Amino acid sequence: MKTLLTINEIYYLVGIIVMLLVGMTLRDKGNPKRLTTALFWFLFGSVFLFGDMLVAGLGKPMAYRVIGVVVVVISLIAGCGLLSAGSYLQRSAADRQASANRLGNWIFLPALLIPLITVLCTVLLKNVAIGGVYLLDQKQLTLAALCVASVCAILAGWKLTGGTPLQAVRESRRLVDAIGWAAILPQMLAMLGGVFVAAQTGKSVQEVVTLFVNPDSSFLLVVIYCVGMALFTMIMGNAFAAFPVMTAGIALPFLIAGQHADPAPLVTIGMLAGYCGTLMTPMAANYNIVPAALLELKDKYKVIKIQIPTAVTLLAANILLMYFIVFR
Amino acid sequence: MTVTELLPLIGIPIVVAGFAFKFNPLLVVTVAGLATGLSVGMDLGTLLETFGEKFVNSRSLATFLLILPVIGLLESYGLKERAQDWIASLANATSARILMLYFVLRQGLGALGLTYIGGQAQTVRPLLAPMVEGAAVAKYGELPLPIRDKIRAHAAACDNIAVFFGEDIFIAFGAVLLMDAFLKENGITNIEPLHLGLWAIPTAIAALIIHMARLTRLDASIRRDVEAWKKSEGTEVTA
């Protein structure tokens, strides 16, 4: 069955937006590293624009190899400090206040349309097809809905403010430059996770744990599983990557097989212990570093610092909850 | 335990050391990936192939870039200014109260599977942060950078914590499906995803209690910061 808006078309749209930003960066004489900054984003945008074409043209192994090289170049550009923010023409504070007064609360409308339309499309367009064609990609429904919502919001913003969609992209360059390399870190970590799986890192973790754990102390095992989930999540930036490693290494052999712990609450609370780690690591860039950039915080670790007290207390709570629930 | 068995772990100290020495995280991750792959005997071509495959297949992580243009446009036409004026007109709004309301809404909606109704780019930057900041500005006037940053960081933290410990209750969420698949693969077959969702509720309640308790003290802490700042400003003037 065909689909009207597929996830691949959404990637093209992301690619086009990134390429527009590349063009604007190239023309920005106020950016001291405009050529390398533009190259960084050009390579990134290429993966979105040409990724599928490469796979179709060269076949998967060769295309992935080429993209692998591109990714290494991207990380070298960032690693050598060749990214920098540009200069931006901004409307003055007085202009902003004037249009805020003119538009009143209507200005919230396009921003509110994003979540509203996303949710409506997700709920209403699930399994909806007209004449044998699905309207939205059914496998990635929320993302397809998010894409529709973003386009609607831009159109509404255009109508409301009089600023064009191209101006919208121009205004977003400030935000994208502020986020910088952190925008790409989540994808890089997915890559590292893939290598860890291929290298069977989980097995090694299990063997190390075996050396240090007394399999008779159920409370200690619970502590090690929860703290291990949090720590490994901090390293991997993602509880999903830590979960199979830690659960196979500690929960399955020692807690479920050895101590007859109830598996459902055990793995659920274990995963949530990992989430406590997500709150405490810069590796979880899209939750901790991107917001610091988006909010223009001087200290890019400020969000993490604010989260640590809650995260640590909640990790302790998870340890207690797990101990009393799985052995109840 | 032999050295060969430990080699797949080489990526972990590299990531930790990379951060300690403040190298760029993209570079650290790439080096950790290369070292791990090469140390277990993958050839460079296969390793690059794994890099490319995972990078291409996780492109969905970058779709938040689609939201930024409209946010940028609205901001240049006074979105933040309007958010702050509106909050200032509500007499009972304080920074902590707005955050508490947002936390409950976000966690509740997350539990119903509506996780995309909030988010750092969608709601925190354009709406929540300006409102929370606006409530404090309405009370104390313009604030210095450190106090402003603390308030904004609280807005970002509120979104993260509320959604993390709400979304797991919803059974269609990725984490629940991942755990379900993992258990089935390992021969534990008598568990429904619904059970996993239900066992997320105790932690969700704990998260609510812990973070609310912290937020009840936020307004007083902002007031102390402002007083300390005004005092230091005062001494500078007289000195």
Automatic annotation (TrEMBL), chain A:
Residues annotated as transmembrane: 6-26, 38-56, 62-85, 106-129, 141-158, 178-199, 219-252, 264-284, 304-326
InterPro entries: DUF979
Keywords annotated in UniProt: Membrane, Transmembrane, Transmembrane helix
Entry-linked Pfam families: DUF979
This protein's name: DUF979 domain-containing protein
Organism in which the protein naturally occurs: Collimonas pratensis
TrEMBL record, chain B:
Name the record gives this protein: DUF969 domain-containing protein
Matching InterPro entries: DUF969 (IPR010374)
Coiled-coil region(s): none
Annotated organism of origin: Collimonas pratensis
Ribosomal protein among keywords: no
Lineage: Bacteria, Pseudomonadati, Pseudomonadota, Betaproteobacteria, Burkholderiales
Any one Pfam family match given in the protein's UniProt record, by short name: DUF969
Origin superkingdom: Bacteria
Keyword terms, alphabetized: Membrane, Transmembrane, Transmembrane helix
Positions of transmembrane segments: 6-35, 56-74, 161-182, 194-213
